Amino acid sequence: MRRLLACVAIVSVIGAFGCRKTDSKAAVEAAVQNHLNHNSHLMLNSFTTHFETVTVKGDTAQALVKYESKNVPNLAVQVSYGLKKVNGGWQVVSSSSAGGQMTNPANPHQGVTLDQTPPPGSQPPAPVPSH
User: Fold this and answer.
1) Rounded CA separation 47/69 (Å)
2) Fewest CB within a 10 Å sphere: which of 28, 64, 81, 94?
3) What is the pLDDT of residues 5-52, one digit of tens each?
4) Radius of gyration for the alpha carbons in the chain, expressed in angstroms and rounded
């Protein structure tokens, strides 16, 4: 009986820490969404937001977010966000482009990276809303 109680206690503790990480991840994602919603120059309906990774370390967090265009097939950019816990809630304190890629629709195996100069004679990628 003691072993059973010990196992239940261990599983409960592990479960509590697992839920805590999930809650932190959800809170970080909500803070990034809130940050985006307060930038009136963004056309939020023009892209789909995917959280690639969220890493929480104490009172700081990093989120890597991929934005895929709904209007231009195969156009996506990644933005890295730095967050800090302020008054018990997460707040975006920095953001930087982590790159992006647009696949050539005529040849899906040939891509143009957005953070580099395209090859001579090619069309430059379409502008992407800033973060």
Assistant:
1) 4
2) 94
3) 433 344 444 444 443 444 789 999 999 999 999 988 888 889 999 999
4) 20
* C-alpha atoms less than 13 angstroms from C-alpha of 67 in its C-beta half-sphere: 23
Can you read off the two tokens belonging to residue 16? 């509590």
Q: What contacts 62, CB < 8 A, 6 or more positions away?
A: 53, 54, 55, 80, 81, 82, 83
* 3 state DSSP class of 129: coil
pLDDT digits (tens, 9 = 90+) for 67-77: 999 999 889 99
Measured between alpha carbons, how far is 84 from 74 in angstroms, rounded to an integer?
32
Q: How far is it, in rounded angstroms, from Cα 98 to Cα 77?
A: 7
What pLDDT is stored for residue 98 in this prediction?
82
How many residues make up the chain in this entry? 131
